[in-house]
Design goal:
The chain is mainly beta. It is about 0% helix and about 50% strand. A hairpin with a 6-residue loop joins β5 and β6. It starts with a strand and ends with a strand. The model has no long low-confidence stretch (mean pLDDT about 95).
């Protein structure tokens, strides 16, 4: 049974930082390209970042470049998203997704003073 469980979201002030985690099970994590998406109320889903199977390919949405860092630990079956310099426009539900399209339930990130 495939499971993706995100954590690490919360309420943070503008300029703050968070680190999201996504623990995967039920598939070969190391063989899967992994992605972080986000969706804000009333907005389209946005691909935030993706990472190749051995960090060989990493890409970010223009809106988060230089502020977010995606990484993975294949030994722990865990995907990360480090988010710095957060602003209110980053408020959304963030969720991870595997190559096969499985995704977690998401974790809420709220940036507000």
């Amino acid at each position: 049974q495939v499971q993706l469980v995100e954590s690490g979201g919360g309420l943070v002030q503008p300029g703050g930082s968070l680190r999201l985690s996504c623990v995967a099970s039920g598939f070969i994590f190391s063989a899967s390209v992994m992605k972080w998406y986000r969706q804000a109320p009333g907005k389209e889903r946005e691909l935030v970042a993706y990472i190749g199977t051995r960090d060989g390919a990493i890409n970010y949405a223009d809106s988060v470049k230089a502020r977010f860092t995606i990484s993975r630990d294949n030994a722990k079956n865990t995907l990360y998203l480090r988010m710095n310099s957060l602003n209110p426009e980053d408020t959304a539900v963030y969720y991870c997704q595997s190559t096969a399209g499985y995704r977690g339930q998401g974790t809420q990130v709220t940036v507000s003073s």
